[in-house]
Amino acid sequence: LQEAALNEIKDTSSIEVVESLRVKYLGKKGEITSILKEMGKLSAEERPVIGQVANKVREAIEENISSKKEELKSIEKQKQLAEEVIDVTMPAKPALVGKKHPISQIIDEVSEIFMGMGFSIAQGPEVETVANNFDALNAPKDHPSRDMSDTFYINSELLLRTQTSPVQVRTMKNQEPPIKIVSPGRCFRFDSPDATHSPMFHQIEGLVVGKDITMAQLKGTLNMFVKKLFGEETKTKFRPHNFPFTEPSAEVDVTCFKCNGAGCPMCKGEGWIEILGAGMVHPNVLRNCGIDPEVYSGFAFGMGVDRITMLKYEIDDIRLLFENDMRFLNQF
Ligand code: PHE
User: Fold this and answer.
1) Beta strand spans in 231-296 (E)
2) Which of the listed residues 186, 243, 301 should we mutate to test ligand 1's pocket, taking the one with most ligand atoms within 8 A of CB?
3) What CA–CA distance (Å, rounded) separates 148 from 36?
4) Tens digits of residue pLDDT in 292-326
5) Ligand 1 atom closest to 277 (CA)
6) Sheet holding 272-281, edge to edge
7) Distances from the Cα of 263 to the Cαs of 78, 201, 268, 271, 312, in angstroms?
8) CA–CA dist 200, 303 (Å, integer)
9) Is 163 touching ligand 1 by the criterion CB < 6 Å?
10) Which of these, 71, 75, 91, 133, has the minimum number of CB atoms within 10 Å of its CB?
11) What is the C-alpha separation between 226 and 233, in angstroms, rounded?
């Protein structure tokens, strides 16, 4: 019996078969087990002799089975290792890394230029009071920008800010001059979206208030800024304009950074691109914010971030900036 069992074990090459042999010989109904069960029928002299032999056979079979199992397991493992070769030369899966939205990139770039000139960053809420967005900024009661068709009103006192200028108001009300801030942020106007309009857009506003602040300083600051943003050769042109909150006011054009003022498709052949509104803070605005215009003066400027982003990256449709299409965003 032992020989038959050991031969059978030797000849198998699968763990399942080894297991079935274990059941066959050593299991509850196995051949050895039934022999041991019959022991009671033997005489007192035969019992220890047969018992010893049967136990020896059992031990031998057990030992064989477990060493065979070990052997088969290690063969299987070797096979598995041989199959699971890792090819370290395979190209890795590219890791998807997020990046800054082009608008955030421009906001950071512009903020950094102004911080380099000693400005700090101020922020305000996107839901503003009519008082901060219009009244304190000296907007006449019948100013067209106040119209329901231009402004998103929440109620008669609250609206979605139409410009970042209310941050000027908040800063002046809370801080003694000297003040030197830029405030980037989102603004909202009741515009139907097209290639150049979006009901949500971004501005960066600048404000300087102190003693003897002049228009010359405004020009110098903006000249320095546009050179840093668009290149050293960039020139500015201040055109008289009108804003309720500044007097005098100007719109500021810069020489097209693509053709350096010669005229190209980018600047529609004009050589100039309008990028800023600016002016000396209106005495009424200073007064509305608790600052004495006899003692202090100031200048302010504002620019459309989306427009500057579109110019710098040559994007021809503002809506692309807000669709969050990865194929578009991955280009920046
Ligand atoms: N807030 C103005 C606008 O939205 C821009 C501006 C800011 C003009 C500050 C002058 C001074 O058009």
Assistant:
1) 236-243, 246-255, 272-281
2) 243
3) 101
4) 999 999 999 999 999 999 999 999 999 999 998 98
5) 8
6) 120-121, 179-188, 200-210, 297-304, 272-281, 246-255, 236-243
7) 74, 28, 7, 4, 16
8) 14
9) yes
10) 91
11) 9
**What token pair was written down for 194?**
């097209």
Complex confidence, ipTM: 0.97
Bridge partners of 208?
180, 299
Residue 301 beta carbon below 6 angstroms from any ligand 1 atom:
yes
253 in Cβ contact with 271 (< 8 Å): no
Question: Which pLDDT band, with edges at 50, 70 and 90, does 153 fall under?
Answer: very high
Q: For residue 202, what are the CA distances in angstroms to 22, 134, 205, 246?
A: 79, 18, 10, 20
- Report how far ligand 1's centroid is from the alpha carbon of 320 (Å): 24
Amino acid letter, 161: R
